[in-house]
Structure formats: C-alpha cells, structure tokens
Design goal:
It comes from Rhizophagus irregularis (strain DAOM 197198w). The chain has helices spanning 6-15, 20-26, 31-41, 53-68, 72-78, 103-110, 117-134, 157-161, 175-182, 202-209, 233-240, 258-267, 287-295, 311-319, 336-339, 344-358, 373-385, 403-416, 434-444, 464-475; strands at 100-102, 141-143, 166-170, 190-195, 216-221, 248-252, 276-280, 303-307, 327-328, 364-369, 391-396, 423-426, 452-456, 479-484. By secondary structure, the protein is of the alpha/beta class.
C-alpha cells in the first residue's frame, strides 16, 4: 500500500473523505501519503467534530499563523492568547486547500484566543478577509448560520462566492445578507434552511428565485410555537419556479394558516423530477387535491417519506411513481389513519396493494396494519412479489393484544419473506410467545441470509426468559441484534439521506 502512486492514493482518500479517523491515520504513513491526504482533509476541516477542544486548538494554531502577521501589533496590544508554536512554520499552506466556511465553527475556534466579543469579532473579520483575498480560489460550501460579517462586500468576494454549490442558513439572518448573496451566488445546488424565527424572510425567497440549477432543498424546523406571521408562502412561491431542476425536497410545515397549506398542496404535484420527497406536514389533502396529485407522475422517485397525513396521500404518490421507489419511510403511529381509524382497513389494504403493484424494487418499507385475514393475505402477497425488501417496519392498530396475530406474522415471514430481508421493525401490538419466537428463529436459521436485526417497542422481550433465548440465537449468528426501544418512535426509520 505504501508504494501506491499519488493518483491512486488520491482516489482512495476521496472515498474516505467522510471518514476523518482513517484519513488522520493516513497522515502518519509517510510523506507522500501525508501530502496526498492533507488537501482532502482540508477541503472542509470544520466538519471533524468541532466540539473536540483538542482539535479546535490545533485549528486555532493554524488560523493564528495566518492572522498573526496581518494584525500582529493589535494582537500584542490586546494580549490575545496566541499559542507558542507560532514561531514554527507550517508544513502546508492549509487554507489554500479549503473550499468551505462554517461560520459557527470558525467563530468557536477563534474564541479560544480571547473571551472578549470585540477581539473575537476583529479576528473573525481578519480571517474572512485573508481567506477571500489571499487564499481559496473558489468556495463550494457555506454554512452561514450565526454570521455577523457581510462577506459579500469583501474585495474579490464575487470570485470566491459565485462557485458555492451548497448553502446552509437560518431564517433569523437579516434579509440584507441574502440580497447581497443573490447578486453573486446563482448556481447553488443544495439549499438547506433552518427555520429559527417565525416570520417571513424575503431575502431567502429572493436567493432561491435567482438560482439557475437548484437540485436539493430542505426546510428544517427548529421553532415549535405559534406563528405570528406565516414564514412559508414566499418561500413556496420561489420554490415553485425550480420544479424543472429540483430532485430532492424536504419540507416541514408547522401549524400555520390555510394559505400555506393550500399553496403547498397546489405546488407539490409540479415537482415532477423528484428522486427524494420528505414531508413533515399537517395539511390533509381534499379529494380535489388528491385528484391533482394522482395526475402528476413522479417517474424518478426513489425515496418517499410523508408524515402526519393519510395513507391515501402516500398511496396516491406511489400509484404515480415510475416504478423506481426503493424506500417508503413513515411512522405508522403518526398517520391520520392510526389516530382516527374509521377508514383504516380500506386505506391500509389500498396502500399494501399499491406497493406490490407499483413498487417492484422496494427495499425499505413501512406498513400500518389492520387485524384482518385479508391484511395477512395481502401482506404475504406483497412479500412474494417484492423480492428486494431488506427492511420491514410493521405496526398494527388494535385495542386488545392477541398472540395469535404475532404467530401469523412469524409464519408468513418464514413462508414468504424475501431472501434479502435482514431487518424487521415490529410495533408492540404484535405479541410473540417464547415458543413461537423460538420456532421462528430455528426455521430462520436455514435461510442463506442470516444475522437478522430485530427492533421492537414491546418491553416483554427484555424479560429473563426472552433475553436468554435471544442471546442464544445471537451467539449462533441467527440474530445480529435484538433491540428494544421504550418509545414507539424508537422503531421508526431515521431519515438521513
């Protein structure tokens, strides 16, 4: 490995760019490895566990090297704490490799030098000035949360900022910052917004509007309270114009007025190029809106996650997907059908049928179940048709427990589960006797795909008898792990795409 040429090493390190531990170890092999790994590590050095004080200190030493000559006299006068290592030269021109700015993390690192807000502000200002004027030729990633400096006014800022591909921000930032960026940054592909202030931000809407190739949009709520003003409408109107390029959409719509709900329901069918759709929302679709949703075909959709809605909304999207869906992820406990189940039987049967009719490639699947013979029959049909399923989350709506339902589920899994199935997430409504679980695991042993991963929210399985049984099959390699979560949400899929 140590004699690989630089080009091969670079390709290997590219694959390890999100594995900082391995990359740091590569630095120690020899000089060639070190010279090849440093540019990869320093594209975005702020991503490596910035809460680690030791690493922050090392980063501060490097930043201080760049700042020291520029403001040497001021630093001396203000008695800012600088490391003694400044008299030694740097092995690399680290900032020349840097393609990212994370304002919050950089501020945290610089604060090591002084606890005074004014000193921190000055050092931040000098850092950005030096970064933009003397170093990075282009910037790819900008996280501007906590920003205090209007970096778009720095000389030569246009040269660096116009290349930004990913932007993270929050709604508390003054609109003027976004108006400034909108004059420069028009090729952002990933736009992630953290909603921290419950009021419109027209600057963000303007920045979205001027984008020419926006592919990825996320609106993440960090504010959970009554909204005095609707923060969504202007954003949605700007987003609607990007339907021709958008392939990733993640939106959280909190309790706001009906204008935002209606608007989102109207524009959703227009995003026909989506590959990933995640909605955390409370708007229930009317029959007319469902008709419009059914008319729009999402040919490229691969991942679907709709929370806080009816199963029929999810089924409508499935029906018009292009047959490429690999993941249908939602929390059954958060569906309207689980909480208010007058149409549960009909809606859940419809959902199961839509899955096996339109999703032959499905790999990850959530199901809300109703305790009927017809549901068990349709579930078995689904498992026989959808042979790529790797993970199944299944929750049943019922009032009184009955181990007969659990027994039926286990029998169906043994008879018809796809060979790829390696993970089962089961709601506490399905009860398994010790005898039936043992019989299931004994028969599962004969399958080529061993090491089953099981998650459940039923506390019965942490009892002594079940623990002993589970440990036995773990040691035999039949079970990879058997986890219990005390809350129903613990068995849900974590959306991290």
């Amino acid at each position: 490995m140590s004699i690989l040429n630089k080009d091969i090493l670079f390709l290997i390190f590219e694959e390890l760019q999100n594995d900082s531990k391995s990359l740091f170890l590569c630095l120690m092999v020899n000089r060639l490895w070190c010279e090849t790994a440093v540019p990869v590590l320093w594209r975005n050095p702020w991503s490596y566990h910035y809460t680690n004080y030791k690493r922050n200190k090392y980063l501060f030493i490097i930043i201080a090297h760049y700042l020291f000559d520029n403001i040497k006299e001021y630093i001396t006068e203000q008695r800012i704490q600088l490391p003694s290592l400044l008299d030694k030269s740097l092995l690399f021109d680290y900032l020349s490799f840097c393609k990212s700015i994370n304002v919050k993390i950089i501020n945290s690192i610089i604060s090591i030098g002084s606890s005074l807000a004014y000193n921190q502000f000055l050092m931040q200002q000098e850092f950005y000035y030096y970064f933009f004027i003397k170093k990075s030729s282009e910037l790819k990633y900008l996280d501007m949360r906590s920003i205090k400096h209007q970096i778009f006014y720095f000389p030569e800022s246009k040269v660096h900022l116009e290349s930004i591909c990913e932007l993270r921000c929050d709604t508390s930032i003054d609109s003027s910052y976004f108006y400034g960026l909108s004059q420069i940054c028009q090729y952002i592909q990933r736009f992630i917004i953290y909603n921290t202030k419950p009021q419109p931000n027209n600057g963000i809407a303007k920045l979205i509007e001027v984008q020419k190739n926006l592919k990825h949009f996320e609106w993440i709520n960090e504010f959970h309270d009554d909204y005095l003003k609707d923060p969504y409408v202007e954003i949605f109107l700007a987003l609607e114009k990007k339907a021709n390029s958008l392939n990733y959409l993640r939106v959280f719509i909190d309790y706001v007025n009906n204008i935002a709900h209606t608007l989102f329901q109207e524009i959703l069918p227009k995003f026909y190029k989506l590959k990933i759709l995640k909605i955390d929302a409370y708007p229930f679709f009317t029959e007319e809106q469902l008709k419009k949703l059914k008319m729009q075909v999402y040919y490229d959709l691969e991942i679907l996650n709709i929370e806080y809605n009816e199963l029929n909304v999810i089924s409508s999207v499935i029906e018009n997907s292009g047959g490429h869906l690999k993941k249908i992820l939602f929390s059954p406990y958060k569906t309207y059908d689980y909480g208010y189940p007058p149409n549960l039987k009909e809606n859940s049967l419809n959902f199961i049928r839509k899955v096996y009719e339109y999703c032959p490639s499905i790999e990850y699947l959530s199901i809300l179940f109703s305790p009927s013979e017809e549901h068990f029959t349709e579930l078995e049909k689904l498992l026989k048709i959808c042979q790529n399923i790797k993970s199944l989350l299944i929750v049943m709506k019922r009032i009184v427990g009955d181990k007969e339902y659990g027994k039926k589920l286990l029998e169906i899994l043994i008879r018809s589960a796809p060979m790829n199935l390696k993970e089962i997430r089961i709601g506490k409504e399905f009860k398994f006797s010790l005898e039936n679980l043992k019989k299931f695991l004994d028969r599962w042993r004969s399958r080529p795909a061993l090491s089953l991963f099981i998650l459940t929210s039923d506390p019965i399985y942490i009892g002594e008898d079940f623990t002993r049984l589970i440990d036995k099959y773990k040691s035999d390699g039949v079970i990879k792990d058997f986890k219990y979560g005390s809350h129903t949400n613990d068995i849900d899929y974590v959306f991290n795409i």
